[in-house]
Specification:
This protein has four helices and four strands. 58% of the residues lie in helices and 14% in strands. It is of the alpha+beta class and 137 residues long.
Length: 137
């Protein structure tokens, strides 16, 4: 019985698996950066403190998992960041609307703008890996 075809497939699969995590993480990190760039356009600016506090935090990155958080507000401005994110706010008894393109929900809406593209990026990357390592069946 000739099993060389199975061995070649197993070898290709092992090489693909070893490289897949790195390539998928790169795609994810790229899209997270695009979401952050969009939040920087949407985040309301009064003094600039909130906008300058924005950052991407890597909470986990290893061979199996990558996790990122886009965060605004540190310390005392954390509560302010929350209120600006979730609603228009009142200042001196006057409802303050954000001037476009800034808006409430600056993180959520930036995320929603890019989530489908993230899914497409990841699916495309998997297709490329399958083709590159001849894993199509």
């Amino acid at each position: 019985m000739d099993i060389s075809g199975h061995q070649r497939f197993a070898h290709r699969f092992a090489r693909a698996y070893a490289n897949a995590g790195k390539k998928l993480r790169a795609s994810l990190k790229y899209r997270v950066n695009k979401i952050f760039e969009q939040t920087q356009i949407f985040v309301p600016v009064d003094t600039g403190e909130l906008k300058s506090s924005g950052k991407i935090i890597t909470t986990q990155e290893n061979d199996k998992t990558s996790s990122y958080i886009i965060r605004y507000g540190e310390g005392a401005s954390k509560e302010y960041a929350f209120w600006v994110e979730v609603r228009e706010y009142t200042k001196n008894n006057v409802k303050v609307k954000h001037d476009p393109p800034t808006q409430a929900w600056y993180v959520r809406d930036a995320h929603n703008m890019h989530i489908e593209k993230l899914k497409e990026d990841m699916a495309e990357r998997v297709k490329q890996l399958r083709k590159e390592y001849k894993l199509n069946g």
